[in-house]
Amino acid sequence: MERVIVLGVLASGSGTNLQAILDAIAAGSLDARVAVVISNVADAGALARARAAGVEALVIDHKGFADRRAFDAAVVEALRMRGVELVVLAGFMRVVTDVLLGAFPWGVVNIHPALLPAFPGVHAQAQALRHGVRVAGCTVHFVDGGTDTGPIIAQTAVPVLEDDDEASLTARILAKEHALLPQVLQWIAEGRVEVDPSVAGRARVVVRGPRLAG
Ligand code: GRF
User: Fold this and answer.
1) Residue 174 neighbours by CB distance under 10 Å
2) Residues carrying CATH 3.40.50.170, the chain
3) What is the number of the ligand 1 atom nearest to the C-alpha of 12?
């Protein structure tokens, strides 16, 4: 068996990506353990999903802190206390700072509902529809100091259909997110993902071995 990687998941919303991680662990396709789920939103669905799976659910309300860095320091302390090795942003609606990124160098991954570098930031699916792109998708990437700019690990594409609205496109992308995120986490658990910092001043990810995803 591969070694079990200890995850800390940060989420602000319904937590369907968290659920995909928990389901993959339960199914034996992801060699990981979620040590804690942290949310800045007290009634986030992600917290209920964590509790239902017997995972610690922690609320850290950003409004209780002077600035983003102070908030991140509290998050880092909570993650460290629980032995977290890899931080997963799964619908976490806060910009993270150098405090979190410095504590987990190339150890923070994010899932974004667009084929980056197109359409970073919020409302990515609406941006895609507005631009009339024919292909959309999702990206899992390491987090760096920018907004959805870090080195890309993997992507899945979906078609944009003529009668799509934001809800239908979001649902089609989300279904792919639920396969892609656990797959990438498993690659990381297997030690197959490396960040090559040397390419043209911009980090790039190398995934060794077979890359067939669902
Ligand atoms: C997903 O679309 C993810 O890509 C984005 O936020 C959404 C979170 O959904 N970052 P959920 O909370 O995992 O259901």
Assistant:
1) 18
2) 1-105, 113-214
3) 12
β-bridge mates for residue 9, sequence order: 37, 88
- pLDDT tens profile 7-61: 999 999 999 999 999 999 999 999 999 999 999 999 999 999 999 999 999 999 9
- 100: Cβ below 6 Å to ligand 1? no
Distance CA 25, CA 151 (A): 25
Kind and range of the H or E element at 169? helix 166-189
Which residue's alpha carbon is at the smallest distance from atom 12 of ligand 1? Answer: 15
The CATH architecture that domain 1-105 belongs to is 3-Layer(aba) Sandwich (3.40)
Please tell me the CATH code under which domain 113-214 is placed. 3.40.50.170
Active site (catalytic) residues: 112
